[in-house]
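Dock pyridoxal-5'-phosphate; give full complex structure.
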Amino acid sequence: MRTAIAIDSRSATPLHRQIYDAWRGDILTGRFRRGERVPSTRELAAALKVARATVAQAYEQLLAEGYLHATRGSGTFVCRELPDELLQPKPVARASAKPASQVKLSRFGARLTEDFRYAPESPGSICFARWTPDLERFPLTIWRKLVLRALRQASRANLGYSREPQGIESLRVEIAAYVARSRAVRCTPEQVVVLSGSQQALDFCARLLTEPGDEVAFENPGYLGTRRIFEAHGLKLRPARIDNEGIAIRDLGRKSKLAYVTPSHQFPTGLAMSLPRRLELLSWARTHGAIVVEDDYDSEYRYSGPPLPALQGLADDVPVIYCGTFSKVMFPALRIGYVIVPEQLAAAFRRAKWINDRHTPTLEQLALAEFLGEGHLDRHVRRMRRLYGHRREVLVDALTRHFGGDAAVCGDAAGMSVMVRFAVADIAANATRKKVQIVSTAPYYLGKAPANEFLLGFSTLGDRAIREGIKRLAAVP
Ligand SMILES: Cc1ncc(COP(=O)(O)O)c(C=O)c1O
């Protein structure tokens, strides 16, 4: 009989616990083999010179936890399968063991065929491939203070699910006031639904307002973020050309359920939709019972002329879903955007938010409401407008200086990027050779794309980098 376990009657650990620990350890290290018969409680108690009840208590625990099992009439044995093994995560089956193709994705899932990845910035290169905010200029100290304040002032109730999936009231009040003063949007806080960026807004538009197979009018060229959502939902995209005044009304068709537009600063051309064209678009929607989705993603950044009022403010009797975001005016990782919807649609968007992800994080909403309420957003936007306006000027000057008539800058003085058509060939090859990162507009087109057309982001680059980048691009190889 193997009973050679050491117990210490002076230890603070109870004797039954010492016996349990010793047996468990010996079983796991293999000193006691699986299936091996263990001594009876009486035998072990005698060998260890302890009360039988003490051994019984240790055995009971080992039996309960699955280290031992008792068979009536024949004794107690070490289990063949031990609980600690069951607790170990099994090695994940190799992908080849069960091909993923055996799991059939839904049509929606099958349409998600690509991951998004920014082209990495290579060392020594000048990157015009970003049209995101210059995060170095974001007032992080103020934001940190407001987040900490929100955290300090938060009650425990703020840690539970929000009762307002549509966004906390103080933030919706601030957003309604902000879009009224900056964008001439007309709405009440009840029409505002706070979402996780415009991307969620556009996803909800597709889900709530269309059926798979529906036709939707889509700007051509247009924003890939929206296009991928519409394609995943199985919508038929009807390409609508962009001319000098905006989306071509004759291309919208009669059957389109909705038209997706970026009227303040068309992506990627940079053109603003003229007032007559806006009115025509609304009239088209009225005639055909269509919905207009207005993506107003970076309209704060206009560098000449008066700001253009939003389409939403012009539409009385046409449903316009206005999508706004804090990604461009603050920072993308905030993941807060909003829709402003006709009153009768607010409940649908609110319910979609609840079943989708409940609500946007409360603490960030509290901090954001203060950021707006204390005027920090307006001040930050004013500062950034001056900075980006200047950087755009530096870029356009450099293009004129180095390319003259061979580089046509499209669009208005607005936004964080400029679309440029080059009359010289081999721009892409030259860019690679000279370590300048630029983005072709080809992926933004449905159908054939023009050659030598590029989108140059300037918002994250200083003056010197912009000038140097364009000089490199123009240098004869
Ligand atoms: C046309 C357009 N809409 C919306 C967005 C912002 O998306 P989100 O609010 O989801 O960050 C972008 C960002 O690049 C954009 O280009």
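Observed: The first helix runs from residue 15 to 29.
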